[in-house]
Input
Amino acid sequence: MLGWLNWRLKAAFKRYPFIMFQASSPVVIVGAGPAGCTLAGLLAQRGIDCLVFDDDKRPELLVGESLIPGVVPVFRQLGVEDRVAQISTRKPGASFFVTDGGPRLHFSFKNVESHLPPYSYNTPRPELDNLLRVRAEELGARFVHARAELEPCIKDGQPSIRLSERSREVAGLSAESEPLLVDASGRARTFSRLMAIPANKGERDDVAYFAHFEDFDHDEVENGQVIISVLRAGWSWRIPLPGRLSVGVVISKEHAKTLGATAEERLENAIRQEPLLAEKAMRARRVTPVMTYTNYQLLSERGHGPGWVLLGDAFGFVDPMLSPGLFMSLEGARQLAEGVFANGAEILTQPETLERAMVRYDRRIVEWHHAWQELVKYFYDGRIFRIHLAGKNLAMKPSPFNLANRMERHSTAHIASMASGGWTRSGYSRSLMRMLSRYLVWDVPPAESFAVRQVHRDEPRSKAA
Ligand SMILES: Cc1cc2nc3c(=O)[nH]c(=O)nc-3n(C[C@H](O)[C@H](O)[C@H](O)COP(=O)(O)OP(=O)(O)OC[C@H]3O[C@@H](n4cnc5c(N)ncnc54)[C@H](O)[C@@H]3O)c2cc1C
Output
């Protein structure tokens, strides 16, 4: 009988969320992207009442298609890995090329199988977002199909944020209800903007153009291998998706202006101008519009305050190089669900315990950002290719007990794991990278030869370096 009643109530609340009696305040999530929906699903699994504001924006194309192995455990936790696999291409690793016959570096995720799944996925983002949204709903999260309206306020003497009267009404929140608000609004950074919370900016300030192509040749033997190329100017991605290839270029704003007036011209000319891409694009047909994204690196100076917390891109954005974006969104959601809500919704009624848990969450996300930023820099400034070349040279030299070869494999495994979301924050792995790039790079060209450049030069990089 009780089971039947519970089922009837659940069905009624799902259909008419606004009539739900608020026994306690729900967690209110602003934004139904991967961060918001993952958090909603994980909280719902813990029986925590949560409500997601979904603005129903469904662009045809979204960046964030190449995923790293670190996201797979979260898909498993949500029980969606099979569904993700059905819409995706399996990704065995990532390769990094330098144009004009420069070094080629191939990472296989097999290197991480001791602690992470040895693969990941390349996924069309709108489909992935839908899947996560549907799953969160299946698990019991409630969705409000409206854009959340927010306003700044002061709470406990500190800057805070609240829902407008209209948004509370739409969500069916009672006058007494004081929900914890989660900003998962992505690059809109809604809370930080309204509360004027500054952000620390990184060095990059580029623009990205991308589209999907058919018959764009791929360089790699392994089907789903992602290729990142350091071009004569900027860098590019090639992400194999089911039936098509996602191709994007990330270039300086100055260089973009020289490539044409429209996004289409700029992407087309960028491809034509780069030997590494032009040859592969001979038969290619663009099958989607060209999308433009600005690329910057930033991290909010505060991640939480009284009654609010930031998640995913709304907290910070590392860089598209190495694809840590979705991982940070999903990992942030996991940290909130498992760290802050480890003992359920009760914590919302215990301000001091909540504050301590939020400080831990905040610190953890900042640590992740710093670790990713350090790693990404090795790829932008060319040190990663130097380490790779020096390692290869060393491995070919005879050494007692094959030590040099073992050392090479050891360092490759650590770098692969750092780029997979495994040992990214590990003190040992990070020290190893620093040590390799400082002391074990004999007889190889300087890092600048392989660095991502802001300006285009016509002559081959190898000559220009
Ligand atoms: C050029 C480029 C390439 C990238 N490539 C990759 C990659 O290959 N792999 C990867 O993992 N990451 C990549 N990223 C990063 C990735 O796209 C983001 O990290 C990821 O989308 C962040 O997810 P999110 O849920 O935090 O935000 P979003 O995906 O932006 O979702 C936020 C949602 O909130 C909604 N919203 C905003 N305001 C409101 C409101 N007031 N009310 C209701 N809803 C609202 C938005 O419409 C949106 O649906 C790339 C980024 C760039 C710029």
User: Anything to note?
Assistant: The chain has three domains: 22-61+126-198+301-374, 90-120+205-296, 381-464.
